[in-house]
Structure prediction request, 496 residues.
Amino acid sequence: MTTVDVRGSFSVLGAILQWLAVPLSIPVLVAFVYGESPIPYLATIALTLAVGTALATLDRGRIHDREAFLVVSLAWLSIAVVGAIPLYLEGTGVFARPINALFEGMSGITTTGGTVIISFDAHSQALLLWRQVLQWLGGLGVLLLATAVLSRLSVAGAQLMETEARTDSVTKLTPGIEDTARILLVLYLALTVTAALLLGLLGVVGLAPEMTAFDAVAHAFTAIATAGFSPRAESIGAFSPVVQWAVTAFMIVGATNFVLLYRFFNGDTDRLRNSGEFRFYIGILAVGSLLICGLLLLDPEFTAGPEETVRHATFQVVSIVTTTGFASTDFNTWSAGAKNVLFVGMFVGGMAGSTTCSIKALRWLIVTKSFWRDLNVSAHPQSVGIVRLGEEVVDEETISDVYAYTLVALLIFIVGTVLLIVDGERAGAPITEFEGLTAAASMFFNIGPAFGRAGPYGTYEGFARSSKLLMILLMWVGRIEIIPVMVMLTPAFWKR
Prediction:
């Protein structure tokens, strides 16, 4: 006998689908402003409302942990499909093929940022902004998922956010989860508006003549969401250096624990300053940027000046580590050493409780501290080894969870790499080993750009159809922290 309330889970899913009518109205307005057809978005609104309303009428009991896993998994998959529908209905360029529309929809809602678009000029302004809105929704969804669901379920060490934020519970910024979600939404929205206003102001005062109001809003959506879609083929490289520095700052903020940001903006600056994870995260960005700078200066083919070298090195390290995926230049042309440093950065991620993806800095901090503890205990067997985050002791079960999650993530990445390379050979679209490694890492850790044909100014359109299906799966599983999908695949999940 099953203990999972499937009808109740689908009822919650229906309510989520109903709410999608609100963000779908944004490209409708943009279509009217630019004289484009709003039909693809109006049709999607009607379909989503119809399906969502039908599901929402199902009986709904109390949502427990098992239902939460099911809802989380189905919601991301369903929203990706909804996000793909208007792309396919518009039917221009590469989106005339359903697999491409679904790839873009999944890349959007998972804040991956990898694209199959070949020519941005072939698509309407409404479609280009819908991609941005979809990623903004994905960033918000992950933020609420991390703070309201995964930490409560103690998924793969996600409960560590509570220790690092030094609160009794991340979900108890206020007495109720609903109020906490509202606070995080307001903060997320405020940061997005701030980014849009600043970018727009840079265009108005002449510091960024290429920056239109459309560009400012579009890039604010995906900078705070650490997502990476851009309506420009050159990404952030299309804009002036001051824009690139500003976007760098917004990416760093978007990848910072929002609980700590909330405390910071309420005057409690000590928690952010004293956060071990925050210092670890900023340290990684600093070390990575210095390494890239050094490697670029040693590269005789890289002839940029000092400021440009520092800017591109810093921007790309921040973009990759925070899993945003913007590009300020074509780093595909950099030396092998510089590219490999960026590749390693794909496995890091920003802070837990942020909009970022990948393994995340907090888990790597725990792995580092526990490994150092083990070395000390080996050298001094009589000593008592403990791992601390701030003033709190991390229990051994949580450390085991973190190690297990990290190992599983690396194993899935390895398997994904092999499958992509083998499938490319089978389908007559071969890729190199490094292309396979970086594409698998980029998809599973939701980075966006890879190297080779899928580089920062490239596209995933050239991959085989079956490879794109695998990438869609990798993006989905990686974005929701692996565990919800894996739990559903176990027979015990569906039995009493």
Confidence is low (pLDDT under 50) at residues 161-175. The beta strands are 388-389, 392-393. DSSP finds 20 helices and two strands in the chain.
